[in-house]
Amino acid sequence: MSAAGNVYAVLLAAGAGTRMGENKLALTFGGKTPLRLCCDAFLQSERPPCTIVIAASEETRAEADALAAEDARIIPANGGATRGASVLAALRALRKNGAEEGVVAIHDAARCLVSPRVIDAAVRGAMEQGCGVAAIPMRDTVRNGAGAALPRDGLFLMQTPQAFCFRSILAAYEAAEVAGLFATDDLAVYMEAGHEAHFTEGSIMNQKLTYREDLPFFRAACGGEAPRIGFGEDTHALVAGRNLVLGGVSILHETGLLGHSDADVLTHAVIDALLGAAALGDIGAHFPDTDERYRGISSLMLLRETAALLRAEGFVPGNVDATVIAQRPKLAPYIPAMRENIAETLGIPVSCVSVKATTSERMNDEGAEKCMTARAVCTLLRGV
Ligand code: MG
Q1: Most buried among 23, 152, 202, 239, by the most CB within 10 A?
Q2: What is the pLDDT of residues 171-184, one digit of tens each?
């Protein structure tokens, strides 16, 4: 391929990501960081770039270095304080690495769902017309603050990549730097230098990861994440003079379960399943029976604390399925209330909580009414 046909890419990964509340480029989707997803898309495109410069910040530098170590075409560079400064630094890094002729596609790493097809269209646009900017037509009605609808015909939403003749965009950015005018996108800088816009086909999937609320969309687009599965089991002795509590429901019976808390064997099994799915230890580690705070406590309180702990770790319960093994009494009438208690405490729909009961056909200690056992499985999903 002649030098004139060279394709270069700039990935912008130096933004602060302040609207996300954390470094969004450190998240993974389908096991890949946004930078890796972008590099994959570019390298899978019709004309893979001979060089990809990643404009990185302190937070993203390590990931840029790791990608560069895997592929010689990838070069890390230090980004600047603004988007414009980062683009210019990356373009200069390209020039330093021998870029002269050809086209450069400039892309925000936060648009990590970009497809090779969208990249191909932008690069082709730049090769044929000097510039190719991924854009999609407005599909929603737009109104101003007073409620007046604005005409949307002929309006487009700008995306990236925005691809240009390398020399033209470098000159435009150098002029913008001198003038102290860095716009929010590359096309504005390019047009300021007297060039014309040319749009290419973007994609509704090519969204910019910006807010926490965007995460489910990005996760789903990358095939989602497998739920984590947990298992819990518990047994408590049946003795006279104790209340029988299962799933937070008090049940009239001549014996009750023995334990430090209310000895709610069903809720304990559910707690252990949830903690297990998150690999956070077991109920004894979190709520030790040597702690006076837990004497006689409703186990639903412990379940509530467990749910809060999981949420703090970024998990939400998906569903719970539990079985209580008890010879007597008949538990069927109490099961709807148990499901409601557990669901409400976990903050999930009742339809996601299953409680079943079985006898052990008079066998074992459960059958001899010496004890009750509960077993539970659950799934945990990554929360938002
Ligand atoms: Mg227990």
Answers
A1: 202
A2: 999 999 998 887 77
